[in-house]
Design a protein that fits this description.
With 153 residues, the chain is an alpha+beta fold. The protein is globular and about 30 Å long.
Length: 153
């Protein structure tokens, strides 16, 4: 009886941890967020226990950012009013293991590395293409900085 009680307590804490902590998303989930309008995206991301972080509006675009519990992940949706081809999802994470898993998923899904470069802040990126679909992976300059995936429409 005592052992059963201990097992249930452990299961409870595991379940609570998984419900409270934000999650990483599968590549397909990130891509599917691009097809959602901003209101639907907000509702969907809140179901995942992400909390609102920031909203930016500029000439012709809207950006909404959400943080996971524990601030392990950040997801951002960019919507452009005139050029919808620029719409994209940006997913930021800190763990090298996540980077390795996403890189494996990108290559496993048939994306091919195409071009490499540096963004304005100096981080290196690699663009991967599959047909007309594009994913950009940005690697940090320093180990403590986050990795970023950009999934374009």
């Amino acid at each position: 009886m005592k052992n059963l009680k201990i097992i249930f307590i452990h299961l409870f804490f595991i379940l609570m941890h998984s419900m409270v902590s934000g999650q990483a998303f599968k590549l397909e989930e990130l891509a599917s967020f691009n097809s959602l309008d901003m209101d639907t995206f907000k509702k969907e991301i809140k179901k995942q226990n992400y909390t609102f972080y920031d909203k930016t509006e500029g000439l012709g675009f809207v950006v909404n950012e959400y943080d996971s519990p524990g601030y392990l992940y950040k997801i951002t949706k960019f919507e452009y009013q005139e050029d919808k081809s620029q719409d994209h999802i940006e997913f930021t994470f800190k763990d090298k293991k996540d980077y390795d898993a996403y890189l494996k998923a990108v290559l496993g899904a048939g994306y091919q590395p195409a071009e490499k470069g540096k963004i304005m802040t100096g981080e290196s990126y690699t663009d991967y293409y599959k047909n007309k679909k594009q994913i950009r992976i940005v690697q940090p300059k320093k180990a403590k900085e986050p990795y970023t995936l950009l999934i374009f429409k």
